[in-house]
Every structure is written in structure tokens, then in C-alpha cells.
Amino acid sequence: MRRAAVFGTGSALPVRRVSNAELAETVDTSDEWIVERSGIRFRHIAGEGETTSTLATDAARRALAAAGMAATDIDLIVLATATPDQTFPASATLVQTALGIDDCVAFDVAAVCSGFLYAVSVAESMIRAGSATNALVIGAETFSRILDWEDRATCVLFGDGAGAIVLGACEDGRGVLSAKLHADGRHNQLLYVDGGPSTTGTVGKVRMKGREVFRHAVTNLASVMGEALAMADLTSADVDWVVPHQANARILDATARKLGLPPEKVVVTVADHANTSAASVPLALDTAVRDGRIKAGDIVVLEAMGGGFTWGAAVLCW
Ligand code: UT7
């Protein structure tokens, strides 16, 4: 049976790493508040010359190296981002050019923090259908550029970065076993950007009603993970690793508890990366692959929820 399996992972972070204490020098906040409410200790902030596409390209190069593949082996690039270099063309085409690929399918996916789940689902469907063979699936963001640095309720929570996987056709039983996506646009005003090309002609800034998002996140994530596991004929007991969207350590704990999953099976990188939106799942995935936690044959669940609302989960046999 033809499936889409992960052949390699990679990630990239901006050079500048900012601690809570450093933020507290310019924002009315404290290390204590940020750690207690979110679990975040550091975030990376893009500097001059670092953009969504440069971070995405670095992550993609590392994923290709891990897969032992050349850029020219790639026939599809799906890049999840809410912070593209330009409104158009898609940042995926900038990555394509930077990698020296003259012709392939390349497009961006906009589902904010769930973007990587949406991108994986689209790419694996195309691979299973035979319209692609080897895909680069990337989540990359420079959220620091759309934060309101006067709004302490949001600016302390986000960071920049990129993660990538090479997803390729495979017939040995490994690969994406199931993927389930959702969207409910009625919740637009709980997490959104207050501008855009077709409304204000500007980029806008992130606005969030954190407490309400939190409540929806725990319910939706537990439920979609259950759906994705059921689609794969598995239960929580079969799961080796959960690689969640890294928005808040308390959300990760509460969601794992709801599914009866021990905290040791949850990959947590929120302390070091903060919330990097579409980049957070592939960044955490690359961390757990490189430090040897995720091994061949493991059952790995990816999950995320974000603006829209959008949310989703995928189950993979590694
Ligand atoms: O990636 C997409 C998904 N996003 C999420 O999942 C985010 C979900 N939400 C959250 O993670 C949490 O709701 C937050 C971390 C955003 C906030 O935690 P909370 O426990 O829900 O706090 P809160 O927003 O209810 O604020 C509590 C207090 C408020 O003061 P009062 O009204 O109680 O006096 C805020 O003004 O904390 C105050 N506050 C701060 N204080 C110090 C808000 N931001 C800060 C800050 N530093 N940065």
C-alpha cells in the first residue's frame, strides 16, 4: 500500500535568543508570570536578513541532508505560514529557487498554528494519489513581525523559527496512517490579525482572547486526536509519542491528561521556542528525532490548533 513516510527532518531558528528577563526590560511583564502561565522561558526573534523563507530554506536543507536526498529529488513543496515574505508569490516558490529546483509544484498553506497539519495532510494525499513522489513539507514563521509589542497579553507568547520534513512515497508499512482536519470560522475574533491586503491594505497585528482560546484548545485537541487514532484503528495506549503544537505547557498537560497519556510521552519544547505557530510542530518533531526519542516503528501523533479556528491531528508510523 502506497503511503507517505517521513524520510528526514530539519529545523532552523533565528540567531537571536531572547529570555523572559530581557523582554521584561521593555514590556510590562515578568519571568515569573510568563513561566507560570505558559511555560515559556525563551523565544528566538528574527533579525535583519532572516525571513520566513530563509528560515524555511535552512530547515529544508537540513531535512534533505537527513533524508540523504538532493533538492532535485523534490517534486512538491508545501509551506505552511501566516507570515510569508510577500503577500504573493508564495514563500514556497522562494524556497524552491533558493534550493535550486527549476520546476516542481510549490504553494503556501494558510491555517496559522494548524498550518503544518494541513500541509502534511495535503502533501500525503498528493503522494498517495500518485501526483507527487517526494515532498518538502515546511512550517515557517516570523510572527515577531506581526506582534504588537505594546500588547503584553500576546507579545510574550510567540517566537520565530522553521521546521521541515521530507515526506516521500513508501510501501513498507511506514508513513501517515491517518489525518483529520477541522475548521470553524465562527471563532475568527478570538484569534486573528487586525489587517490584511484586501481590508486595510496593511499586514495587521496579532489579537487574541487567550483565556477563551485555551478553553477551546483543550477540548478540540483531545477530540481530534481521538478521531485520528480511531481512523488508524489505534487507541491512546498504542501511542509512543505525541508531538503537539507548542502554545502553552498547561494546554499540553491538560490535553494529555484528557486522553490518558502519560506526560513522558509528550514532546515539549515550548520553554525554548515559545509559540512559533506553523513552525512549532515540525520544530518539536525535529528535536525529538535528533535526540533519539522518536525511533523507527514508533507511533507518533502530531496535533495543533490555531486561528480560524483550525485544528487537526495526524497519526504516523515512523
Ligand atoms: O497558538 C494558537 C493557540 N493559542 C493558544 O493556545 C493560547 C491559549 N491561551 C493561553 O495560553 C493563556 O490563556 C495565556 C497564556 C494567553 C494567558 O493565561 P491566562 O491564565 O488565561 O491569563 P489571562 O489572559 O486571563 O490574564 C490574567 C492576568 C490579567 O490580569 P487581571 O485582569 O487578572 O488583573 C492580565 O492583564 O494576567 C495579566 N497579564 C499579564 N501579566 C503579566 C496578561 N499578560 C501578561 C503579561 N505579564 N505578559
CATH architecture of the largest domain: 3-Layer(aba) Sandwich
* Main sheet characteristics: 5 strands, mixed
Question: Can you write the helix and strand succession as a string?
Answer: EEHHEHEHEHEHEEEEHEHHHEE
CATH evolutionary superfamily of the largest domain: Thiolase/Chalcone synthase
How many DSSP helices? Answer: 10
The CATH topology of the largest domain corresponds to Peroxisomal Thiolase, Chain A, domain 1
Mean pLDDT: 97
Q: What proportion of the residues is helical, as a percent range?
A: 25-40%
Ligands (ions, cofactors included): oxa(dethia)-CoA
Please describe what this structure looks like:
Helix 3 crosses helix 4 (91-98) and helix 7 crosses helix 8. The chain is globular. It contains ten helices and 13 strands. The protein folds into two domains: 3-170, 3-Layer(aba) Sandwich (Peroxisomal Thiolase, Chain A, domain 1); 175-317, Thiolase/Chalcone synthase (Peroxisomal Thiolase, Chain A, domain 1, 3-Layer(aba) Sandwich). The chain is of the alpha/beta class. The longest helix has 22 residues, at 210-231. It has helices spanning 20-23, 31-38, 52-67, 91-98, 115-129, 152-155, 210-231, 249-258, 270-273, 280-290, and strands at 3-12, 16-19, 42-45, 76-80, 105-109, 134-142, 160-170, 175-183, 191-193, 206-208, 241-244, 299-306, 310-317. It has a five-stranded mixed beta sheet, with helices on both faces. Bound molecules: oxa(dethia)-CoA. Oxa(dethia)-CoA binds next to helix 2, helix 6, helix 7 and strand 12.
